[in-house]
Amino acid sequence: MHENFFHNLKVYYEDTDSGGVVYYANYLKFMERARTEALNSIGYSNKMILGSFNSLIIVKSCNIEYKKSAYLEDTLTVRSFVKSITKTSFFMNQIITKNKDVIVEAQVHLVFINKEGKPVKIPDEIYLKFKPYFCDTIKT
Questions:
Q1: Number of domains comprising the chain
Q2: What is the DSSP code (8-state) at residue 54?
Q3: So what's the pLDDT on residue 14?
Q4: Which among 47, 71, 70, 67 has a CA at the least distance from the CA of 57?
Q5: Structure pTM?
Q6: Domain annotation covers residue 139
Q7: For residues 30 and 95, is the Cβ–Cβ distance under 8 A?
Q8: What is the CATH number of the domain that holds 36?
């Protein structure tokens, strides 16, 4: 059994169109915030990873499915977990819910890179801190 990261947020006026519906691209921002908070929850930040490991975590690809809309002042929960991992990257599944209804599902491929943009090995100490959040699927 793997663990999940949870991040709660409220939909603000700036997140919506003139009809009060969350603009589709803003779900990507919500998921980015959730990934940043997940990283913080294990004791790291993007700035710290850059300073300590000369690495960045970038999004290589994202597959997203919009199921229902969210609206102004809704409270949303972003659930995130690591679906699979390789030596240099991992796939994170992220599910946004409103109450108990799934409104967005995404699989995000994240890669560790150096300052030159080349993939690098995930630092062992970060790998170990993320390990409880992995599914059983670990690739080499």
A1: 1
A2: S
A3: 96
A4: 47
A5: 0.89
A6: no
A7: no
A8: 3.10.129.10
Edge-first strand listing for the sheet containing 75-85: 5-10, 75-85, 89-98, 101-114, 55-66
Catalytic residue among 15, 17, 74, 101: 17
Is residue 119 within 8 A of residue 112, CB to CB? The reply is yes
Q: HEC states along 71-103?
A: ECCCEEEEEEEEEEECCCEEEEEEEEEECCEEE
17 is catalytic: yes
> How confident is the model over 40-91, as pLDDT tens digits?
988 999 999 999 999 999 999 999 999 999 999 999 999 999 998 899 999 9
**HSE of 14 in the Cβ direction (CA atoms, 13 Å)?**
3
**123 backbone dihedrals φ, ψ, rounded to 5°:** -55, 135
**DSSP symbol at 68:** S
Q: Is residue 95 part of a domain?
A: yes
Residue 138 lies in a domain: no
Query: Kindly report the CA angle at 118 between 126 and 40, in degrees rounded to 5?
Result: 25
